[in-house]
Amino acid sequence: MMIDPPIDVLAKKTDNNKYKLCNLLAKRAKELQIRIPDEIEASEKKAISIAADEIMNGDVIPSDHA
Question: How does DSSP assign the chain, residue by residue?
């Protein structure tokens, strides 16, 4: 279960569009697994949690074309 960051707070990053948030999280997590698989495996966090943190911090910004 994902607790931090909260889904409702993350949804605000995508104008409360949870569909867009889900797509953004999935795409970024997959990208992380492809680009840095060794770091993901060594990390305590899963790729989806890292992607959520990046969205929360503003490192990954949703586009209008998601």
Answer: ---SS-HHHHHHTTTT-HHHHHHHHHHHHHHHHHH-HHHHHHSSS-HHHHHHHHHHHTSS---TT-
